[in-house]
DNA sequence: CTCTAGCACTCTGTGTTCCCGAGTGCCAAG
DNA sequence: CTTGGCACTCGGGAACACAGAGTGCTAGAG
């Protein structure tokens, strides 16, 4: 059905269209990609490719443009991920190494990725689920208010101000803090709920209301926000591109964390570090865009996802290379800290 | 030079142009704003206004459009800040009251402001400069690494991982923490440098290298990042508007914290809660946009600034009302926590 | 059976022309 | 100072023609 030459034609169409942003015709194709055949032959192949739905023409007597299905075939079978240059890799390394804390790592990562790909970069904060507790801090703010600070081994810090149901003396708070830390230090976040289940019973009865309040906030902190935080950068790169769905929708989606999460997708459990490419209509919401994403985190300890979002007409090999490389480097950085 | 009627004409031109986005002609003006005079008279006034540089025409035989100078006069003398409706105020209050921590307050504020004004909202994180130290925490992470966490009375948490020059036992760290807290608790951040100046001398000699490292990081935390953090929302609202400078430049500026800070401007020391309006070319960078901003924070304790950014053709009275109201509410919320 | 060359056909995009109408500036009269 | 009248200007849309790119088809060559 699709012999090698037809595939070569498809590849050439995708490459030319991506670089020129203009429908590509048979003549230009035959010339620029030394295919050793005449334009007429190319035309026959193009007719076949169009028949199968891999390409389409905007109007009669214009060149051909890849369809989502065409890009899909290109990504799956006709292209190879393009590695970054040595210079680029060095630049990444030094830029990421300069980060001072987790916020900074994430910020630098997302900016770097946006700059490398000239697309919109999206980075999900490392999820808490697989993290462990490094420290729990209770800071008395006033008679009836304390601040809860939870520090994880990934360097993430969660904080909440808690209103207590009654006045609790500072030394009681200090005691609770000591108990909490001895109990939770180094434990996985997912095990926290069971670990603190019987805690109220092990403490003086008069503290129970306060303890219950504090623990419930702690639990909230764990479950509610563990993967909601997500940032993007490079919105300016959207200015040039044109989207099927309209620029406004894309910008709106970028500010909706829920939508953004969905677009990045789930890390598949069997091959967590694989690149995910969703093209055009394969995406939930935002049909007119493509998303290249991957999980990051060292080895079996996948932390979260990152990727880029752009028009379907994007340079997939280069973009995939950049996403993969950045994911690897940020994984290293996080593993080291 | 500019009698009352000419001012009324200018006001009418601004209002019409803002609402229709089309150059406004003398005839339509005379009809819609019962000015009690004929189009010809209006034309004479318009000629005078143009002579003075308050309005201009895109091309001969088109209506008039306000210049930056025209908007400036309108804002200064011809308009009143428009208060929000009761329903809007209630909505703000309940929405902001639901915030759980400082990040959440800022996030909610910026989104709210974007939604109210249908412009891009910008909020600077509460600056540390006038905050006081609530708590300093040192958490040993490993033999040679500790995490420094600085908690301020505004609920802000700064964190740094510190590599120590040598192994320091945990109880020494604990001691240093106690000393630091007793020394700094409740003190203004700006006084911290002098307060810790002689600290190394008051501690055992063998700890000095480690202490010096920790203190230098603490100082860095204070000075470096105290006002860099700034967020925006509502970029999607830019999609419709057209900017003199091009959409791309605006989006780029939004991601450059330094530029954003400059655009928000300084809080004037004498009237900190006054609304600042910068119109078009009055702005540093981004000449094609207008910025409406104000400081927030309770009373004499100004924390930082917030505002919105949009095309020069914006509804200033409404925008100013929204910015002022949101600043007041967020000040309340922060003062209460 | 596949490839190639030639040819007629169909579009889009561009440039030209024309004309309408909105809006202006100026002038003279109220 | 205001107003009505009037000639003028210019942008934008409609109508039109045209060149060029690209196609599909057919017939012939390998």
TrEMBL record, chains A, B:
Domain HTH deoR-type: 34-62
Free-text function comment from the UniProt entry: Negative regulator of class I heat shock genes (grpE-dnaK-dnaJ and groELS operons). Prevents heat-shock induction of these operons.
Domain Heat-inducible transcription repressor HrcA C-terminal: 103-320
Record keyword Nucleotide-binding present: no
Family: Belongs to the HrcA family.
Taxonomic source organism: Nonomuraea indica
Signal peptide residue numbers: none
Protein name: Heat-inducible transcription repressor HrcA
Keyword Transmembrane helix: no
Record HAMAP family: HrcA
Record keywords, A-Z: Repressor, Stress response, Transcription, Transcription regulation
Top-level taxon of origin: Bacteria
């Amino acid at each position: 059905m699709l012999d090698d030459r037809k595939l070569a034609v498809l590849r050439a169409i995708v490459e030319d269209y991506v670089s020129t942003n203009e429908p590509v015709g048979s003549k230009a194709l035959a010339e620029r990609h030394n295919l050793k055949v005449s334009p007429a032959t190319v035309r026959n192949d193009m007719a076949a490719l169009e028949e199968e739905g891999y390409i389409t023409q905007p109007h009669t007597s214009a060149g051909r443009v890849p369809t989502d299905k065409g890009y899909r075939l290109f990504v799956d079978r006709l292209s190879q991920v393009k590695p970054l240059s040595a210079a680029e890799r060095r630049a990444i390394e030094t830029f990421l190494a300069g980060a001072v804390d987790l916020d900074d790592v994430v910020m630098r990562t997302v900016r770097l990725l946006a700059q490398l790909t000239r697309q919109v970069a999206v980075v999900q904060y490392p999820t808490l689920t697989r993290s462990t507790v490094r420290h729990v801090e209770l800071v008395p703010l006033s008679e009836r208010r304390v601040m809860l600070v939870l520090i994880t081994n990934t360097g993430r810090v969660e904080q909440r101000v808690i209103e207590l149901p009654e006045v609790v003396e500072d030394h009681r708070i200090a005691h609770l803090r000591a108990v909490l830390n001895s109990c939770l230090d180094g434990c996985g976040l997912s095990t926290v709920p069971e670990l603190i289940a019987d805690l109220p019973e092990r403490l003086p009865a008069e503290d129970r209301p306060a303890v219950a309040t504090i623990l419930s906030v702690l639990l909230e902190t764990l479950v509610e926000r563990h993967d909601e935080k997500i940032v993007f950068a490079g919105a300016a790169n959207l200015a040039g591109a044109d989207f099927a769905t309209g620029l406004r929708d894309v910008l709106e989606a970028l500010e909706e964390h829920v939508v953004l999460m969905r677009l990045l997708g789930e890390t598949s459990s069997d091959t967590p570090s694989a690149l995910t490419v969703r093209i055009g209509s394969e995406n939930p919401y935002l049909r007119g865009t493509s998303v290249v994403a991957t999980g990051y985190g060292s080895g079996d300890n996948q932390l979260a996802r990152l990727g880029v979002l752009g028009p379907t007409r994007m340079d997939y090999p280069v973009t995939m290379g950049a996403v993969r490389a950045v994911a690897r480097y940020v994984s290293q950085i996080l593993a080291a800290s």
